[in-house]
Amino acid sequence: MNSDTLKGNWEQVKGHVQKKWGELTNDEIDQINGSRKILAGKIQEKYGRAQEDAEREIDDFEKTY
Predict the structure, then answer these.
(1) pLDDT under 70: residue ranges of the chain
(2) Rounded CA gap, 34 and 38, in Å?
(3) In Å, what is the CA distance from 14 to each residue of 30, 44, 50, 53, 60?
(4) What is the pLDDT of residue 44?
(5) What DSSP assignment string belongs to the chain?
(6) What is the pTM of this model?
(7) CA geometry: angle at 14 spanning 48 and 18, to 5°?
């Protein structure tokens, strides 16, 4: 799954995103709206991850969907 696919399938994927990163609120999930960059920023903010680590987590997540 690439960034375009994430955005295109956001309605189907966002529940899985919230399950994976449970500290994200519904409002934050709505703000992300399929944007990989915003998702990475929210992961960094909520979990204290470095940008590279957040990107790696998203890469791993995308491989499952």
Answers:
(1) 1-5
(2) 8
(3) 9, 18, 22, 20, 15
(4) 98
(5) --HHHHHHTHHHHHHHHHHHTTTS-HHHHHHHTT-HHHHHHHHHHHH---HHHHHHHHHHHHHT-
(6) 0.88
(7) 45
